[in-house]
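User: I'll paste a sequence; please echo it back and then give the predicted structure.

Assistant: Echoing your sequence first, then the prediction.
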Amino acid sequence: MKITEVRVFLTGPSRNYTLVKILTDDPEIYGVGDGTVNGSEPLVAAALEHFAPLLIGRDPSAIEDIWQTIYGATYWRGGVVYVAALAAIDLALWDIKGKVAGLPVYQLLGGASRDGVAVYGHAHGPTVEAAEASARNLMEQGYKYVRVQLDGGYGGYGGPGMVRHTDSTTEGHRGVDYFAPEPYLISTPRLFEHLRSKLGGEINLLHDVHEQLLPIEAARLAKDLEPYRLFYLEDALRPEHKEGFEVIRRYSTTALAIGEIFTSRGDCLPLFQRQLIDFIRIAPIHVGGITEAR
């Protein structure tokens, strides 16, 4: 079997999606992959068009070889646009392999190891009472894990720390958000103190910092949240501040998660090796597909 054509689609009813379809000389066998990166969808589509000639005539079953070929196709490597294009190709090749084998891909990777996975819902509100009501609504739907944020009254993630500044003199100006850490560092522990007192100790609570803090600020927050036993505190620091997780670990036992905007195993390894995080939150379509995620 050989790859005969690579088609790239940039489409979506309410937002862009970047998709690739890899066709083979068997008209019944093709693969589809997703390489969507919010805000950069046309760039990923252009990268896919650029890589397409490298695939024509190749055996689609040689996934590892094709992955390495594309990853090393240019002197400069990495970056989310680059690896998302690679991920779309990788996912499409695994789709083909599953169709040829007549098996779901998880069987080709070793089979299922559990009957289900826990998921969480997003609860938020401009006040602790509104956030509690939002969390209760999810709990009534059966959620056992709930991520809770104060939204600052306008849907923003920063809560009381996020300030919206609008330049009304500029026509069409969307406004600029900036972050003041102190209100956030004060309000967030109060939020979870309230939630624990009202919702009890059985519900698993999560919170996302959205990379807004410096290491010493994140350590303070993690320490202040300890009494409320978060399932995890997500993205306490920017990925560029990996060494800062040592500061958080030194002062707190709050479980930590990161990885949403990681793009390779190299981002993860130092944190794994030094036991600085407890959960990795990578998206396969942003790290190079199933091959790199595995």
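Residues 47 and 74 are 12 Å apart (CA to CA). The chain is about 35% helix and 20% strand.
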